[in-house]
Amino acid sequence: MPSPHEAVTVSDKALRRADLARATGCNLETIRYYEGVGLLPPPARTAAGHRSYGTADVQRLRFILRARELGFTLEDVRGLQGLGDGALLSCAEVRDKAEAHLAEVRAKIADLQRIEQVLFDTVGRCSGQDVPRCAVLEALSA
Fold first, then answer.
1. In this structure, are residues 53 and 20 in contact, taking their beta carbons and an 8 Å threshold?
2. For residues 80 and 91, what is the distance between their CA atoms, to the nearest angstrom?
3. What is the pLDDT of residues 58-72, one digit of tens each?
4. pLDDT-based confidence at 140, cuts 50/70/90?
5. Cα–Cα–Cα angle for 8, 86, 69, nearest 5°?
6. Rounded to whole angstroms, how far apart are CA atoms 34 and 64?
7. What is the spatial distance between Cα 31 and Cα 64, in angstroms, rounded to a whole number?
8. Mind spelling out the 3-state secondary structure of 6-62?
């Protein structure tokens, strides 16, 4: 399956949900979920009642998947979608959201680096031998 941001040619014909999943690399359940939380609009229906998706749905889903891949929350995605939907969201507002998210990512990276250092130090004190005291277990118990 292609990645969510990989270009896949989609014709202008109506797509079924499975076709939408294939075109975007998205799981069927994830598509249902995004429809349920309102990130994807309810699909059009054929005369026979089958769901029918178009190129706009493919583009919207790719946008959602890429934003989620970058760690944006569902609420962030909902706000960011407003720009593409013609809402009165300015580029500065989008930049502010992206900068706030970047700050969160940097804080998480700093936390992970601290965790890495503690684990590195702790593992370095572990002899790996059968001993009554284990440096890793002692660090976890502290």
1. yes
2. 10
3. 999 999 999 999 999
4. confident
5. 45
6. 9
7. 10
8. CCCCCCCCCECHHHHHHHHCCCHHHHHHHHHCCCCCCCEECCCCCEEECHHHHHHHH
CA–CA dist 5, 59 (Å, integer): 10
Beta pairing class for 44-45 and 51-52? antiparallel
Residue type present at position 4? P
Q: What's the pTM value of the predicted model, to 2 decimals?
A: 0.73
Q: At what angle do helices 74-84 and 55-69 cross, to 10 degrees?
A: 140
Torsion-angle region of residue 131: left (phi > 0), alpha (psi -120 to 50) or beta? beta
> Which tokens belong to 117?
């250092």
d(CA 35, CA 78): 12
